[in-house]
Amino acid sequence: MEYTDIIKNRYSVRSYSDKKITEEELHYILEAAKYAPTAKNKQPHKIYVLKSDEAIEKINSLCKCIFGAKTVLMVCYDKNEEWTSPLGDNFQSGLVDSTIVCDQMMLAAWNIGIGSCWVGYFNHNEVEKAFNLPENIKINSLLLLGYPSEDSKPMESKHSVYRPMEEIITEL
Questions:
Q1: Are 127 and 74 in contact (CB under 8 A)?
Q2: Cα separation, 40 vs 21, whole angstroms
């Protein structure tokens, strides 16, 4: 698939079929994370794969936006591994780096026909505690993965609404 087709046609899937993705498909998606760019190539991201019935049941109890996905990635970053700017502005790269990783995985998934949805609507502290994450590991987001259900479609009111280029681009 052409890259522009991938970025134009991908949408947040909010209804998944019961069919699970294969280990090969999961590996392909996770490999996109491996090659994602990060600040100073520090690679602070950490991804937890939730696919057991127990793990999916637990995340469903903590987040109302799983939409029937059978695979959920907890996209995290390690506070001890993130790059910190030496310029005194207290910029730390973990959140940005893990966001780039998440985006790469979403696009890789769509490239092979797997739907995804980035979710941030949950209590991050509760999820970190429920899954016994070390204190230095912080959740960025949940990335739902799976085959879109037959009735899955983009949210019409939001999917094809874009601000004009002149509103988002300023030449200096």
A1: yes
A2: 33
Neighbouring residues of 48: CB distance < 8 A, sequence distance ≥ 6: 73, 74, 76, 131, 133
Q: Give me the CATH code for the 3-151 domain, please.
A: 3.40.109.10
| Cβ contact 113:25 at 8 Å | no
Q: Per residue in 49-87, pLDDT tens?
A: 999 999 999 999 999 999 999 999 999 999 999 999 999
Q: For residues 51 and 66, is the Cβ–Cβ distance under 8 A?
A: no
Q: How many other β-carbons are positioned within 10 Å of the β-carbon of residue 31? A: 12
Domain boundaries, the chain: 3-151
Query: C-alpha angle 77/110/64, rounded to 5°?
Result: 60
Distance (Å, whole) CA 165 – CA 20: 39
Q: Is the pTM of this model over 0.90?
A: yes
What residue ranges in the chain does DSSP mark as E strands? Answer: 45-50, 71-78, 115-119, 137-146
What 3-state DSSP class applies to 141?
strand
Residue that is written with structure tokens 């498909």 in the block: 25
